[in-house]
Design goal:
This protein is α/β, with parallel strands linked by helices. The protein contains 8 helices and 12 strands. Strands 2-1-3-5-6-4 form a 6-stranded mixed β-sheet. Strands 9-8-7-10-11-12 form a 6-stranded parallel β-sheet, with helices on both faces. Helix 4 packs across helix 5, helix 4 packs across helix 8 and helix 5 runs parallel beside helix 6. The longest helix has 15 residues. The relative contact order is 0.13.
Amino acid sequence: MISNSRNQLPVISGTTRLFAVLGDPVRQVRAPEMLNPVFAELGLDAVLVPVHAPVAHLGEVVRGLQRAANVDGLLVTVPHKAAVCDHADVLSPAVRLAGGANALRRGADGRWYADNFDGAGFVAGLVAAGHSPAGRRVTLLGAGGAGGAIAAALVTAGVAGLDVVDLDPARVQALLSRLTPHAGDRVRAGTAAAVRTSDLVVNATPLGLRDSDPLPFDPADLSPGTVVADIIMTPRETRLLRTASALGLPTHYGAHMLTQQLRLYREFFDLD
């Protein structure tokens, strides 16, 4: 059984249920250090481990884990959130709107159910930090799996306008095709210049995982008071956030999103 103490390591036995978080890379994930204490507090005989799933072998990794009878769920991070949908039997409305999933669970019927809590977790984190997006002009950089989920949640939260910026125009258009029926002209394809007139700018690209990465945009172009948010978990303070903070701009860390997702994960995986 998993120990009930946060200060002790989980005890793995032959009855332990397995969960995995998939990514490429995977060294930056923080889900194991946040969810394993939850398992311990609930007295669950379960453990979450990181699994490095190279892009070229994602299908093999997912199919192998799904065929392991003691694997109950998967969390999904960069860059697999769109591709992993091909390995789910049932997609939630959030997945269909966002175009990607960040959690899959094995149902009692043996089917695999996919959902996406990135957007809901991100918006909840903003609100908890005093940065409600309602009525704000937002620029979102990155229209991938996480970006799509965040865009959908921002629209639902009532942003005044959302500019989506991505190096792949086709990916932006695919996202807009899903969001426009719900958001009308509040959402549009944007350019890098959109950050200059925004109240909130969100980096949902992988830029920042390495300190040598270029900035996704120049915070010096922003107006005073513009909130700069990054969804990267590790490092906690990315180069983007350090630069924005040095300019006196309010910043919002990626860890807020995962913290808010814990309740959603507990409900999805029926951990209570």
